[in-house]
Amino acid sequence: MKPTISKHPCPLCRHNSQEEYYHDQRRNYFVCLHCHLVFVPSAQYVSEAEEKAAYDHHQNSPADPGYRRFLGRLFFPLQDKLAPKSHGLDFGSGPGPTLSIMLEETGHTVTLYDHFYARNPVALQQSYDFITATEVVEHLHDPATILSQLWTLLRPEGYLGLMTKLVRDQEAFAKWHYKNDLTHVCFFSRSTFEWLAEQWHAKLEFFHNDVMLLRKQKDTREVLQKTPPVVTG
Q1: Lower CB density within 10 Å: C or N end of the chain?
Q2: What structural domains does the chain harbor?
Q3: pTM of the model
Q4: Rounded Cα–Cα distance for residues 103 and 108 (Å)
Q5: What is the pLDDT of residues 10-52, one digit of tens each?
Q6: CA dihedral for 93, 183, 233, 35, sign (positive or negative)
Q7: Longest Cα–Cα distance in the chain
Q8: Nearest Cα residue to 121 out of 1, 230, 12, 2
Q9: For residue 187, what are the contacts with CB-CB under 8 A and spacing of at least 6?
Q10: How many CB atoms lie within 10 A of CB 47?
């Protein structure tokens, strides 16, 4: 692999230095040599209409015990750390919000935001004790802006809980079903989250190989965006 200079900077750290990581008949995948994010170039994104059509087929429901077990991988580590009656944001809550209900059942209050299903700008003008985003970050077209916005909304000592499958290596990536979803355009690794935690001076913990908790320290400053714009998608 030869390093290349992209016409489009890394969507997470904005650096230009990258290598081709993998390609198939449908898309190209590059790895950033700075933050280690694997990403698809924006010219190969599906349209917004195609993206929503894919989400409309999701059959997630709070009445589904299997889906609750799946979300439990984030719910239980987060619940263990939250103070009673905390207030949180479920970002990218989707067509069948469930994690929010699980948290509300334990006494917390949760506000929803979703670009397609709960577009509530007021939700992005509040501060929170915790923010969750389950199976969301792999869909983000502009993770630098959106993750910085979420981090800004988080109160000191609050938690950002993320769930996404992690890149392991190129051999595994070539066989990885996760990359075949055309709405997935950003692929994070442990190294990427370690880089992100360093930028934010955050405490980072990994759970179950696909769950990350980042705790915001006192008196820290956002690094990726000094004044992030309001998220619109």
Answers
A1: N
A2: 3-215 (3.40.50.150)
A3: 0.91
A4: 6
A5: 999 999 999 999 999 999 999 999 999 999 999 999 999 999 9
A6: positive
A7: 53
A8: 230
A9: 29, 37, 38, 39, 138, 165, 167, 173, 178, 179
A10: 8
